[in-house]
Sequence to fold (217 residues):
Amino acid sequence: MTTAVLVDDHPAFRKGLRTLLEELGTVVVAEAADGAQGLAAALEHRPDVVLMDVQMPELDGVTATARLIETWPEAQVLMLTMASDDSAVFAAIQAGALGYLLKGAGLDEIDRAVSGVAQGHAVYGPEVARRMRAFFTAGSGVVAKPFPELSERERDVLELVAAGLMNPAIARRLFLSEKTVRNRVSNIFAKLGVADRGEAIVVARGAGMGGQPGQGS
Fold:
């Protein structure tokens, strides 16, 4: 019997998904309304599969997945989301998700995805598989960007934070005011669900950011 943790910020969707999974014979051992709660629930219950949304408050699903895999490498995560853009798909896979399925998938498709991921198989919905095939067939050099919930400018700031630069140096590097940098750093902390600069650096470096050492002035 497969056990699962559901992580989604929409109560009605969780309720419907729980009913559906239980009809398929999957036991839902816990639910969570955001990535932080989902991370805690997954580590507490250690289910066969974690069904994770991408865009959520407090902590997004991609970051939560990366932290979960880092703490519990055996975790099997299936992203079940509305986010179908390439950056979200590849960021999730890069974070360690084994499956990626779009909401609105049929009963049989969800059943196969849950069963497959629970057994350690990579499973992607038809639309996601088509995107991946096009991506690799084209030989694209595009690299999936971490933290799709961040804007391009916020990602630039986080890259420099991860490299060890402080706000004044970041402001000079990006030709921004220090106030603007402070505001962007605060927004980044909120979106990543981190408490301070140290935690942000750990999370960002874990995603491969901060490769260019900077001056901490």
